[in-house]
Design goal:
This protein is of the alpha+beta class. The protein has five domains: 72 residues, no CATH class; 113 residues, no CATH class; 55 residues, no CATH class; 154 residues, no CATH class; 64 residues, no CATH class. Helices cover 31% and strands 12% of the residues. The chain has 17 helices and twelve strands. The strands form four sheets. Strands 3-4-7-6-5-10 form a six-stranded mixed β-sheet. The protein has a two-stranded antiparallel sheet with strand order 1-2. Strands 8-9 form a two-stranded antiparallel sheet. β8 and β9 form a beta hairpin. α4 packs antiparallel against α5. It is flat, with a radius of gyration of 28 Å. The protein starts with 12 loop residues before the first helix and ends in a 38-residue tail after the last strand.
């Protein structure tokens, strides 16, 4: 779209026509809510509005400064490249071709790329054929890959057993041999096809007492080298020991589920829909001193000053980690606690980085009890991958059509106060429980309740606040102390 009208006066006919074209494009791609985020100088892409309000704001205030690439309103997305005559077919098939293209960083197999995507060519062309192959001759509703993904989705939402899923495939092949001869015959084969899209889970056995992982050099151990507890469920282990001919499969006592992070971060750049958003925080951010995004925070700026080689490229990824425990059985077992560890890329704009598709479940730490201070045992696979990402991995950028070295850094952890103690190593109990006041924590032991009480809040008030001399309403003393000085990284 020609954007020359954006530099003209808002009272001109060109501006009116251009604004209507922009609104037509933006509202053609909205969800059922019928709203878009308003790009005017007041809202600054921070508020959802209907068409009449958006038109009024843009006529009165105009576009916010620097917003010439309308990436937040559907410009340069995958549907822009779809021929209008084939749009209905594209939408009906669920865009399996686009899914495969985005997963492997390929936008158009017939175009001359500036640089070829790295590796996995054979896997890509296999999936590309499945995405275009009709389920049976003359079928326009489903391709082979579309049908498998829909069937796999039903299995997951319906909580089918793997064996029942295989039985369904066998029944379909028996009842409709001509229509289903291209389908795999078992759940295992379907899982291999789905796994090529990068949706993988690694199961790592763990000591039931949270001492160690059976990983790397301990992968083949049968007992914990710390507490000597058996790796497998004790009841089945006794059966196997009593009968040498037993064919029971040994079940591990505890299993950590790890979902690799690297491939999912690479998909953000390989996807034609999200690669441009990953650079938005630096290239199109309004830099007026106000905090609208984590990239405006002092921590982000301090990190950029310390690691200038990292901050040169806007595609370097900043991550936040969140962890907490929950009971998957609701009120059935209040003592059971399963801990998910979730990572979020903060390169994305605010209206995307807090959405569910960009919450990357990385670790699922099993119960029945919370890992406590032993959570670092389960964090080992993630920490090793984060170290690898700090050094960089080769990734294809779909928007620039070139390979680059993608690096990532973990900047924040998000958790409640008890989990803070487990993740950071700072004790949140006892006399020095406050991480902000540190050695200047104002504490008092209550002998009857046998607990520590933390007072001294008036230190944080302004110097001449009336409460500082109000001894009667507080602990009988006037407060003249200043707030404790926050520790720097070097002091810690």
């Amino acid at each position: 779209m020609d954007k020359g009208w954006m530099s003209k006066r808002r009272s001109t006919k060109e501006d009116e026509n251009g604004l209507n074209q922009f609104l037509d494009m933006a509202f053609a791609k909205v969800s059922l809510s019928g709203k878009i985020i308003c790009p005017c100088k007041r809202c600054r892409n921070g508020k959802g509005v209907i068409r009449e309000i958006a038109e009024e704001h843009l006529l009165v205030d105009g576009f916010m400064k620097g917003y010439t690439n309308w990436v937040a309103h559907g410009e340069d997305t995958l549907t822009d490249h779809v021929d209008s005559q084939n749009f209905n077919e594209f939408n009906m098939l669920g865009d399996m071709t686009g899914l495969v293209h985005d997963a492997f960083g390929v936008n158009d197999t017939n175009s001359n790329m500036e640089e070829e995507p790295n590796g996995q060519a054979k896997v890509f062309f296999e999936l590309f054929d499945d995405a275009q192959k009709e389920l049976y001759p003359g079928c326009k509703q489903f391709s082979k890959l579309t049908f498998l993904i829909r069937l796999f989705h039903l299995k997951c939402t319906g909580k089918w057993y793997n064996k029942s899923f295989t039985m369904l495939l066998e029944l379909l092949k028996e009842a409709f041999p001509e229509a289903t001869k291209s389908l795999p015959s078992s759940y295992y084969e379907v899982q291999k096809i789905i796994g090529k899209l990068g949706l993988t889970c690694i199961k790592i056995h763990a000591c039931p007492n949270d001492c160690m992982l059976y990983w790397k050099e301990h992968e083949n151990d049968i007992a914990c080298h710390v507490c000597k507890t058996s790796r497998y469920d004790q009841a089945q282990t006794n059966v196997d020991e009593g009968d040498s001919s037993s064919k029971f499969k040994k079940n591990p006592a505890k299993v950590l589920r790890y979902f690799p992070l690297k491939t999912r971060l690479q998909r953000l750049f390989m996807s034609s829909k999200t690669s441009s958003f990953m650079r938005l925080h630096q290239e199109l951010r309004t830099k007026d001193g106000c905090m609208r995004h984590p990239s405006d925070s002092p921590l982000w700026h301090d990190f950029d000053r310390r690691h200038r080689d990292f901050s040169k490229d806007s595609r370097k990824v900043r991550l936040g980690l969140a962890a907490d425990g929950f009971s998957p059985f609701r009120t059935m077992s209040v003592t059971h606690s399963t801990w998910p560890v979730i990572l979020t890329p903060y390169n994305l704009p605010p209206w995307m980085c807090m959405k569910e598709p960009y919450f990357f479940l990385t670790l699922l730490i099993p119960g029945p009890s919370a890992p406590g201070n032993n959570i670092d045992v389960y964090m080992q696979p993630l920490i090793e991958e984060l170290k690898e990402l700090w050094n960089g991995v080769e990734t294809y950028d779909a928007s620039h059509k070139q390979n680059f070295c993608m690096r990532a850094a973990l900047l924040w952890t998000i958790n409640d106060f008890p989990a803070y103690a487990n993740l950071s190593g700072w004790s949140t109990k006892g006399q020095l429980a406050c991480p902000s006041c540190h050695k200047d924590t104002c504490f008092q032991y209550l002998y009857n309740s046998r607990k520590e009480c933390y007072m001294g809040h008036r230190r944080f008030l302004s110097e001449y606040h009336a409460y500082r001399k109000d001894s009667k309403s507080f602990d009988g003393k006037e407060e003249y102390r200043r707030a404790p000085v926050p520790l720097t990284g070097n002091m810690i």
